[in-house]
């Protein structure tokens, strides 16, 4: 019997082995604390399928996935219903990648799954700074009595990062108390990404983690998300922001969260998520 090329589902251009790779892509199919419309657990599956509508080459960054070493590690198998155990498994997986001298792009999943990946990066890089692009503050101390929630992920990250380490952009939704708390503890630009370039210049030489919640995009552009928030940015503005990240010298890891593909039957939201994955993978390459 002759050899046969197996049809193994990976993101386009990410077929290197783990040992060969400089960057690891993986999915986290968890939406266990979603408070409005669930479905982000299906994001990475949809993104992988639709990625074959993309080219591997990015004309924005003049880089090609075919020229770099990226491994698609698949999706984590998680014990749904046990949030603390889920977060611990995500952190352990992320720590292994960083310990092996690689970077990662994690694709959620709801935004809470960023907490253990940020913590893993912080454990290796104690001077870690976080760039947070989102529609929502995510600064509640608790939501419906739960401290571990998609609505509190940045507040929980602040628990170990402390002041002066979190930079928020595009924020246009949250409780008044969250906005007031942010004035003392985070850098926050409301409604736009206009000062991102200035902050990137300040953070050029420190380790940086980038977390992008796709609901930063206006729902008229990107309806495929669980908590749509009108008044957002355009996709072109998001691409320009990613281009600005190229000035950072130490992006150590990143994530992309909150695509719920079933809420956009046109497929446009998944197409935008796919393109963003490509751009962020190429951004992580040194």
Descriptive report:
It is a single chain. By secondary structure, this protein is of the alpha/beta class. The chain has one domain (23-284): Ureohydrolase domain (Arginase, Chain A, 3-Layer(aba) Sandwich). It has helices at residues 43-50, 83-99, 114-124, 153-161, 176-185, 196-202, 235-244, 268-284; strands spanning 23-28, 57-58, 63-64, 70-75, 103-108, 129-133, 166-171, 187-190, 208-213, 251-257. The chain has an eight-stranded parallel beta sheet, with helices on both faces. Helix 2 packs parallel to helix 3 (114-124) and helix 3 (114-124) packs parallel to helix 4. The N and C termini lie far apart (42 Å). The model is unreliable at 1-6 (pLDDT under 50).
Overall number of structural domains: 1
CATH architecture: 3-Layer(aba) Sandwich
Q: What's the CATH topology name?
A: Arginase, Chain A
Query: Mind summarizing the main beta sheet?
Result: 8 strands, parallel
> Which homologous superfamily in CATH is the superfamily?
Ureohydrolase domain
| Quaternary form | single chain
Query: Number of DSSP strands?
Result: 10
The H/E string reads: EHEEEHEHEHEHEHEHEH
Which runs of at least 5 residues are low in confidence (pLDDT < 50)? 1-6
What percent of residues adopt helix (DSSP H or I)? 25-40%
Distance between the termini: 42 Å
* Radius of gyration, CA atoms, in whole angstroms: 18 Å
């Amino acid at each position: 019997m002759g050899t046969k090329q197996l049809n193994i589902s990976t993101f386009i251009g990410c077929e290197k082995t783990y040992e060969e790779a400089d960057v690891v892509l993986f999915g986290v199919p968890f939406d266990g604390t979603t408070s409005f419309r669930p479905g982000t657990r299906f994001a990475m599956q949809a993104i992988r399928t639709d990625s074959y509508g993309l080219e591997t080459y990015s004309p924005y960054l003049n880089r090609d996935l075919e020229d770099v070493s990226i491994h698609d590690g698949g999706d984590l198998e998680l014990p749904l219903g046990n949030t603390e155990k889920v977060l611990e498994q995500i952190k352990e997986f992320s720590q292994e990648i960083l310990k092996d001298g690689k970077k990662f792009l994690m694709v959620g999943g709801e935004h809470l799954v960023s907490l253990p990946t940020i913590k893993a990066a912080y454990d290796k890089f104690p001077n870690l700074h976080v760039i947070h692009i989102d529609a929502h503050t995510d600064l509640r101390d608790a939501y419906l009595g739960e401290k571990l929630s998609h609505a509190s992920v940045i507040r929980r990250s602040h628990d170990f990062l402390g002041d002066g380490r979190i930079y928020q952009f595009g924020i246009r939704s949250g409780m008044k108390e969250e906005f007031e708390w942010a004035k003392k503890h985070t850098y926050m630009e409301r409604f736009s990404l206009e000062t991102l370039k200035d902050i990137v210049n300040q953070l050029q030489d420190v380790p940086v983690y980038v977390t992008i919640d796709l609901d930063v995009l206006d729902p008229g552009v990107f309806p495929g998300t669980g908590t749509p928030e009108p008044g957002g940015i355009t996709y072109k503005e998001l691409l320009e922001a990613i281009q600005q990240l190229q000035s950072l010298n130490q992006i150590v890891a990143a994530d992309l969260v909150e695509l719920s593909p079933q809420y956009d039957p046109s497929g446009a939201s998944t197409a935008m998520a796919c393109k963003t994955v490509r751009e962020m993978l190429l951004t992580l390459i040194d």
